[in-house]
Design brief:
The protein is of the alpha/beta class and about 120 residues long. Helix content is about 30%, strand content about 25%.
Length: about 120
């Protein structure tokens, strides 16, 4: 079936976008990040999975991730046994994606979710 900008010929969503978010001690910013991310991915013409990676946080980051997963079926969690660093956490998240396109984002809003449509447009 032909695809144009994430829509198939019937105008339905097509493809899967994976967003991987490594996080270390981000309990204070994670809910806001997820809210902004959700606002963006709800408007794009692709199904989305969001993979949060707890990089051995010593605060309540994992608990926040679990709350987000309970409220959003698109959320998956990878929890590492200790802090391995952003690169290893990102790789762990990538290992659990199924998307046709993958975007890595920081949980501290350093990478604004509002840029996702721009990334997808360049990808297409």
């Amino acid at each position: 079936m032909e695809q144009v900008a994430g829509l198939n010929v019937r105008g339905e969503r097509s493809g899967l976008l994976s967003v991987v978010v490594p996080a270390y001690n981000e309990e204070k910013s994670l809910a806001l990040f997820h809210e902004r991310l959700r606002d963006v991915v709800d408007k794009i013409p692709m199904e989305t999975e969001i993979i949060y990676v707890n990089d051995g946080s010593t605060d309540n980051t994992l608990t926040v991730m679990q709350r987000l997963r309970n409220g959003d079926q698109r959320v998956g969690i990878v929890s590492l046994s200790r802090n391995f660093g952003k690169e290893i956490a990102s790789t762990a998240g990538l290992d659990h994606t199924e998307g046709d396109a993958v975007i890595l984002m920081d949980a501290d809003l350093q990478h604004p979710p509002k840029m996702i449509p721009v990334f997808l447009e360049h990808w297409r």
